[in-house]
Amino acid sequence: MGDSENDRAFILKAWRAYIESSGRLVAELEHRMKTASGLDMGDFNMLLLLSEAPDERMRMGELARELAFAPGRLTYRATNLAKRGWIERKASGSDKRGIWAILTTDGRRVLRKARPLHARLVDELMIDHLDRSQAEVMLEVFTSLNNRMRGLSDEPAQKSRISG
Hints:
Layout: H1 2-37, H2 41-52, E1 57-59, H3 60-67, H4 71-83, E2 87-91, E3 99-103, H5 105-125, H6 132-150, H7 154-159
Antiparallel strand pairs: 1-3, 2-3
GO molecular function, one term: DNA-binding transcription factor activity
Domain HTH marR-type: 1-147
InterPro entries: HTH_MarR-typ (IPR000835), MarR/SlyA-like (IPR039422), WH-like_DNA-bd_sf (IPR036388), WH_DNA-bd_sf (IPR036390)
């Protein structure tokens, strides 16, 4: 088992580096975004997804899947964003059980102000420190991992979601 044991140890070392660096990166990004804009990454990601959706609206279930949030967590966040006037929630006309999350004019304005800050922080914390070959490896690894994770049950991913 020499080689495979060494391979496993090396892969576990890579895993540990990923967990530690991604945790620190997300925490620092979250802290700086919240401090500078008052917007946390969960709010930013939700507003961003809505801004990119057709008619700037998504069904709550679809939004939960895309953000890897448990439905209760998404409902709580959506309620807070609606109270701030950044999104509106409306019952689906065709399916009374379905709820739409819709980006409002104020939500669009908040996102428009936060996007340059987010881009600058991502550049400062990560992009500026990678070369093309490192980015290519990351793209290959994380695209493969993301595709695999999307194929698994949503429940565990929703419970452990780290926004960023």
